[in-house]
Amino acid sequence: MSLILSSARVETRRLTRSGLFIGLLAVFAFFGLSGPALALYMPEILGAAAGTEQLTIEAADAIPEDGIALFNQSAMQLGLILAVAVAITSLNWDARPGSSIFYRTRVRHLARLTVPRLAIDWVAVIASYTVALLLAAGLTVVFLGPIETGLIVTVGIASALYLVMAMSIGYLIMVLTRRTAAAIAAATVLMLVLPLLSSIDALAPWAPTTLLATPGSGLADIAAPLLSAVAVSAACVFTAAFVANRQSLRRDA
Predict the structure, then answer these.
(1) What are the record keywords, sorted (predicted)?
(2) The whole model's pTM is what?
(3) What is the domain extent for residue 210?
(4) Distance CA 176, CA 247 (A)
(5) Is 138 within a domain?
(6) What are the phi and psi torsion angles at 80 (to 5°)?
(7) Helix (H), strand (E), coil (C) string for the chain
(8) CA of 218: how far to CAs of 20, 208, 214, 233, in Å?
(9) Number of structural domains in the chain
(10) CA-based torsion, 168, 173, 176, 177: positive or negative
């Protein structure tokens, strides 16, 4: 237990002292501020972009759901990649021969060292996203009108689980590659390709990417992708623990 708590404490200090946690808050908060404003002024923006005699674009007035939808679309792009990078860099000690040898020769079960760090990253990312979501909801009420609490809860739960799943995938890739840059690149490409699963009819009802299009849906409507996200996250964590304990020491520079 002391090892788990120590590992969690080390990761907490890494996030705070390196500025990663402040960066997460800033990035998600920016989208929380810009999403409702973008929805409010979208008709004017489109009108200015197509202000010619040959082309005319008409946009309907924004509704409250648009503010949350635009926030989520933006936050789950750059914010998602940043969240995955945070999870991957929590294991960058394994990419350095010295620290890798130090930890691996002192811990019998490596998961007791790595999983607490991943859990702290989950908490930090979910907290940052939640703050931004509440900020977006508040501005949406001010600019666009009242919004249902159920919608905020559904979007929050769905997006939080998707973030956890994406970070777990990045965590597994880092364990397999033990190369920080390679893991970030591979995870980024995978996050860009993953939405294609929704285009396959057989997989669409269970595809976790469905969670990114939750406005207007209830939790019961997205139960299948929620379960998929939980299952993928658990599988990644357990697989990473199994692989990490069977890897040999790296002595290459």
Answers:
(1) Membrane, Plasmid, Transmembrane, Transmembrane helix
(2) 0.89
(3) 3-36+64-246
(4) 9
(5) yes
(6) -65, -45
(7) CHHHHHHHHHHHHHHHHCCHHHHHHHHHHHHHHHHHHHHHHHHHHHHHHCCCCCCCCCCCCCCHHHHHHHHHHHHHHHHHHHHHHHHHHCCHHHHCHHHHHHHHCCCCCCHHHHHHHHHHHHHHHHHHHHHHHHHHHHHHHHHCCCCCHHHHHHHHHHHHHHHHHHHHHHHHHHHHHCCHHHHHHHHHHHHHHHHHHHHCCCCCCCCHHHHHHCCCCCHHHHHHHHHHHHHHHHHHHHHHHHHHCCCCCCCCC
(8) 33, 15, 8, 22
(9) 1
(10) negative
Within-domain flag for 97? yes
| Position 172 in a domain | yes
Answer whether residue 51 is part of any domain: no
pLDDT tens for each residue of the chain, 253 residues long = 688 888 899 999 999 999 999 999 999 999 998 888 777 776 666 555 555 555 555 556 667 788 888 899 888 888 999 999 999 999 988 888 888 888 887 777 888 889 999 999 999 999 999 999 999 999 998 888 888 888 899 999 999 999 999 999 999 999 999 999 999 999 999 988 887 777 777 777 788 888 887 665 677 778 889 999 999 999 999 999 999 888 876 655 4
Give the C-alpha separation, 181 to 189, whole Å: 12
